[in-house]
Amino acid sequence: MQYEAVIGLEVHVQVKTATKMFCGCKNEYGAEVNTQVCPVCLGLPGALPTPNEHAIVKTIAAGLMLGCEIAPICKFDRKHYFYPDMPKNYQITQYDLPLCLRGGVILEKYAFPKDVQKEDFATAQKVIRLVRIHLEEDVAKSFHFEEQSGIDFNRAGTPLMEIVSEADLSSAEEAFAYLTTLRQIMVYGGISDADMEKGQMRCDVNISVRPVGQKEFGTKTEIKNLNSISGVRRALQYEIPRQIEVVSKGGSIRQETRRWDDASGQTIIMRVKENAHDYRYFPEPDLLPVRTDQGLKAEAEKLIPELPRQKKERFMKDFGLSDYQAEVLAQERALADYYDEAVKGSSHGAAIANYIINDFLATGPDLNQLPIPASHFRELAELVGGNKINSKQAKEVLAEMFNSHRAPALIVAEKGLEQVTDTAQLETFCDEAIAANEKSVADYRSGKTGAINALKGFVMKKTKGQANPAVIDEILRKKLS
User: Do the bridges between strand 256-261 and strand 221-226 make them parallel or antiparallel, or are there none, so unpaired?
Assistant: First the structure.
């Protein structure tokens, strides 16, 4: 019997705000432990929460970018459970009236392979539907040492979105593509830096297997707190075969929570899974319901940028880029903005894209601190397009440009690279080439058209590589015919 995986993801994304969700403490990564705390985020008796408007607006913006319906009224609830990193013994979250409902994440064609071994990539879009996006507060962070543990409450109270998908994913590769796309949108929109190494984006995986063709879901297992996109992929690459092996041998899967152990390459059981009633949800009595239709949604709409898919389509339409070129340049907002600046006012969009993708990105630049002005690539493309230098000389200019960050025109002038375009002078060199290469001339005239390359090489050597190859080719063909 053949089995298939059914996967849903719960992605936690820290919202990029100046202060925490319900207090005025700084929301800043990397501060000295337990220095960004107050009675509210420490859960001290009598402290009252005040909601962060910016966090609410950014969560609405995230929902709009993902095609969600924005609830006109939402509320906050208390979710009760005890962990050392939960100072109040409950978490302020949203239960039955979240900010955003439905929507989806679009996986572009070629974003993931249907069959990894065959490298058979999907050739059509796939939409991963969302259930909801709700806003809550993050918990503190635990540190475990050899003989003791410590807790840093700086993270406690940080605004945290939970983006819950339907069980529309069916492979580790699809999950990888989903998380990559979701992270890209969050960064593009300025919602979050979504740096998984800093815990700004984390993921819980719900996974079950069932016989192919069966509509009912199998018993699901949850894998908690995965902190890298590749970690999610590796965890699923282990867990899917594990569950298939159990059920194919007549066993049954327990509803349980597991964790991913990257060192051993396997999931390990943590506890039997809680149900929603175990958390004893009830409305947060210290916070009023929130109306989003009285200005909050309008503020969120102002934050929505041109998204990656829209940028890609514009790059292809306006600048004649290939699907691949547009995809690469639209991946990171900083790179897309850089290309937009480089191509401003230029008719050489494809050439500029080639220089950035094939030459510049190969140097491994920091996209947040690009040392070379984008206009340098426009200037280089215009030098080549205007026959001032040839493509081989352009490579030399690029190398120097990357090294010294100087403008291409200045480099060309200093190195004396400008092409020889004087037709009369080039005709003289072409005559010399024809006189000195009788065999090549005879071969060309007998139909061996490739023989012209020897003549062109002669002229290029005479001009020390500074002749325009296209002009040489034209002159030679005229003379030989």
Answer: parallel
429: helix, coil or strand?
A: helix
Q: Which residue has the tokens 């051993």?
A: 264
Q: How far is C-alpha 228 from the geometric centre of its chain's CA atoms? A: 13
**pLDDT tens sequence across 422-453:** 678 788 888 888 988 888 888 888 888 888 88
Pairing of strands 266-272, 141-144: unpaired
Count Cβ atoms below 10 Å from residue 260 Cβ, excluding itself: 24
pTM across the whole model:
0.81
Closest CA to 426 of 481, 384, 478: 478
Tell me the helix, strand and coil percentages in the chain, rounded to 5: 40, 20, 40
Residue 18, both tokens: 């100046």
Q: How far is residue 260's CA from residue 207's CA, in Å, rounded to a whole number?
A: 13
Q: Give whole-number Cα distances, 331 to 122, 169, 184, 369, in Å.
A: 19, 22, 7, 17
Strands 100-101 and 90-93 come out as unpaired
What confidence score (pLDDT) does residue 41 get? 93
> How long is the chain?
481
- Positions of the chain with pLDDT lower than 50, given as ranges: none
What is the pLDDT at residue 290?
A: 95
H or E, element range at 377 = helix 375-385
pLDDT score of 40: 95
Phi, psi of 270 (to 5 degrees): -105, -50
Query: Whole-angstrom Cα distance, residue 349 to residue 341?
Result: 11
Question: Coil, helix or strand for 5?
Answer: strand
> Which domains are delineated in the chain?
3-301 (no CATH), 306-415 (no CATH), 423-480 (1.10.10.410)
For residue 466, give the H/E element and its range.
none
C-beta separation of 55 from 272 below 8 A:
no
Placement of tokens 């993931």 in the chain: 112
Q: Contact 57/249 with Cβ under 8 angstroms?
A: no
CB atoms within 10 A of CB 35: 12
Nearest to 329 by CA among 312, 346, 348, 314: 312
Please name every residue paired with 206 in a beta bridge, in sequence order, or none if there are none: 8, 222
Six token digits for residue 393: 């000389």
Separation of alpha carbons 73 and 293, rounded Å? 8
From CA 329, how far away is CA 86, in angstroms rounded?
A: 42
Joined together, the tokens standing for residue 258 give 């597991």
C-beta separation of 10 from 220 below 8 A: no
Measured N-to-C along each axis, helices 323-330 and 333-342 cross at an angle, to the nearest 10 degrees, of 120
